[in-house]
């Protein structure tokens, strides 16, 4: 998605019509995107002196719409395609309206840690493997760091390998954004705490990929920012705040990135 945007910006700044035409052709054939976007990219890249004349001619031939309106479509398409958090972009529901627990933003900033505030109130995303709860395996309950509402049971937790705490299902305290099925499948739907409206992460329909986990039967993967959670162990031991960093461990390179192993004999 981001690549498409950067490509379009690149071509907008390009000064040759030739390259834009090539892009126009490849873009249409490979991406199957509507003609308005690719046509507009064509216009935007043409920086000849008689640009406006050319544009008018092309515009009248290709479309009844004016250049300005086409450009606005292109820019909005680019924004939609490149949005870093698409589920939020599509969701107009406020994080405060209609929720039982209400605080002003200033109060939230006081109640929550910086990480918690960024996730819960600003809809941010923590870096993968940055929460101690990703590796938590004890029995217990995962609660909202904003309002203490129970959100996930440890029995539904599984290791997805994504670096974020993952659950097969949520408890009743979890609210799932209502998005169209295509978006839900491709990009996921936002999940929030139903009590305080705090952003928790996203839910994806790819649970079936995780064989031998509870997600395989639910078909869902609730991908949660650990910082939004507090883990309450059922043995009564101390609560674990998800915005705590995991204990430092030796960084190991994945096999596919590691250099080939060379034995002394091979030299
Ligand atoms: Zn909450």
UniProtKB/TrEMBL annotation:
GO biological process, any: protein repair
Region (Disordered): 235-267
Listed GO MF terms: peptide-methionine (R)-S-oxide reductase activity
Leader peptide range in chain numbering: 1-22
Pfam families linked: SelR
MsrB domain ranges (all copies): 105-234
Endoplasmic reticulum recorded as keyword: no
Annotated GO CC locations: cytoplasm
Keywords for this protein: Oxidoreductase, Signal
Coiled-coil positions: none
Family of this protein: Belongs to the MsrB Met sulfoxide reductase family.
Protein name as it appears in the record: Peptide-methionine (R)-S-oxide reductase
Source organism (scientific name): Chaetoceros tenuissimus
